[in-house]
Amino acid sequence: MKATMMDTHLSLNHLLERAGRIFRDNTIVSRLPDKSLRRHTYGEFYRRTRALASALQQMGLKKGERVATLCWNHHAHLECYFGIPAAGGVMHTLNLRLSPDEIGWIAGDAQDRFLVIDDVLLPLYEKFKHLHPFEKVIVFPFSGAPLPAGMLDYEQLLAGADPDGFEYAAHDEHDPVSMCYTSGTTGKPKGVVYSHRSTVLHTLVACLPDYCSVRNTDVVLPVTPMFHANSWGMPYIAVMVGAQLVFPGPHLHPDDLLDLMTQQPPTLALGVPTIWLSLIQTYDASLKAASPNAGRWTLPKGLRSMVGGAAVPESLIRAFDAHGIWIMQGWGMTETSPVGTLSYPTAALKNASADEKYRRAAMAGLPVPLVDLRLRGDDGQDQPWDGRSVGELQVRGPFITGGYHEAGSPADKFTPDGWLRTGDVASVDEQGYMRISDRTKDLIKSGGEWVSSVDLENALMAHPAVAEAAVIAIPDEKWSERPLACVVLKPGEQASAEQLNAFLLDKSLAKWQLPERYEFIDAVPRTSTGKFWKLKLREQFPR
Ligand code: ADP
Q: What's the CATH number for 12-191?
């Protein structure tokens, strides 16, 4: 049986062509630095993207060469997502929240040839440009300020290019399209390279009805930065189905996001738990009659929300649900494209209680199709899916990276039989729902038993006076390690260590799992992708 299906290669260019033809009139909205909104149609996006690709080819970009972006979320960044691969290049998103030294090092490691940068980020560029010489710097006039000499104007470049005469660079589905560095929270940053094939497969899978379920009629607000694991693939998903996009630009303060949600109500929004926490706390505070923001905001009715990248506390899911907004939790990594698991109620939970549904929603969820997962114990054996046994989470699949740029497949990251070692400790129950108990490095070993910092944080954040909680290990002579809870109280609220411990006991935590000590702090330090940065806390509280 030789005659089966055509061997057509999977390609991002197909998604672009299709969007340009079919969804021409749907809109892409971007918030500019002055907070005004700029609208483009998909028809314009299509022509501008082809013009960018044509200009890059004219500039001599060759197949496989890297073009870095240092941009907020906006329409021109979306054009880079498709235009750079269309020209045969590899889009490398630089994380603007890293230090200048880290950005410069990463650009050098990736050997980026050109850079596309927002004009508002040029002061940052000045601080790392000595570390890596880009051959050309293309400035997107986001704020419209005059350009420094020697740089290219993105808009002039597009205006001078020929979108009609452009021809896609020859490629096959295994050719690279984009690249993203791991954040380095737990080690030196490493480059993960995505291909046409992995991106198209991830886009199809993540868009399935039980997962992101994005439709053409959706209005999508990606708050997750486009430099954080490709905004979880949402730019590709939205273009595949032609959904309306609303980009927040540089304005990620909760007040600004609530203003934008009120002005341009999304049907789907995505971001990390820390941002969603401050969003709901700001909104709930505005409901008090005495608030200076009383009546300023409306949360979109029926909004769906994808939250992940770190554990999503059950209290956060309940707080949004009180306003009719359902949060779907996902787990993933830069290495996994990134969607690996998502939590949604299966038919088996049809008659489950509300509490049981919340409990499941607070788990990382079920593996998406094409992703295999397993739990490996310290003894190298697979752990059973019984909801109790924990082991290192290992994954495998066509959109899981097989190695790192220049670094290959180191043994601490890959098993001899080719699975990715995630560094997460997890359990899976009989129904396939996965729960992350910790990162290997964050687990607290107390008297031979493991204490999950994630469990403690979730329980603490359910206390009405607690805004944020992060738990780390501190050394202990008798027990080897004990938990230290760093707690941020809500403005005007009070809670003592004794009251919090009593609350935790009430939440069925055992006495030996309770924090040994509490530190009441002003804010939990954040990583470059907005997650709790425990490394910094460990430095601050070494004992
Ligand atoms: P970093 O956190 O280092 O910035 P990534 O964005 O790649 O890098 O993060 C991947 C890690 O984030 C995972 O290995 C896991 O520890 C954590 N993570 C992601 N989603 C979840 C989740 N839903 N629950 C708990 N942890 C999560």
A: 3.40.50.12780
Judging by beta carbons within 10 Å of its beta carbon (0-12, 13-18, 19+), is residue 349 exposed, middle or buried? middle
Closest Cα to atom 27 of ligand 1: 310
| Closest of 383, 543, 538 to residue 453, by C-alpha | 538
Distance 135 CA to ligand 1 centre (A): 34
Distances (CA, A) of 89 to 164, 211, 335: 19, 30, 20
- What are 205-241's pLDDT values in tens digits? 999 999 999 999 999 999 999 999 999 999 999 999 9
Task: Return the residue whose CA atom lies nearest to atom 24 of ligand 1.
Answer: 311
pTM metric for this prediction: 0.92
Q: Where are the domains of the chain?
A: 12-191, 252-438, 444-540
Query: Which residues are catalytically annotated?
Result: 182, 335, 445, 450
Q: Whose CA is nearest to atom 4 of ligand 1?
A: 183
Confidence of residue 187 (pLDDT cuts 50, 70, 90): low
Ligand 1: centre distance to CA 125 (Å): 28
The whole-number average pLDDT for the span 94-103 is 93
Q: Give the CATH number of domain 444-540; options: 3.50.50.60, 3.30.2350.10, 3.30.300.30, 3.40.50.300.
A: 3.30.300.30
Cα(339) to ligand 1 centroid in Å equals 11
Query: Do 274 and 310 meet the contact criterion of CB atoms below 8 Å apart?
Result: yes
CA distance 235 to 49: 14
Is residue 272 within 6 Å of ligand 1 at its C-beta? no
Instruction: Determine the CATH number of domain 252-438.
Output: 3.40.50.12780
Domains 12-191 and 252-438 in one fold: yes
Does any ligand 1 atom lie closer than 6 A to the CB of residue 527?
yes
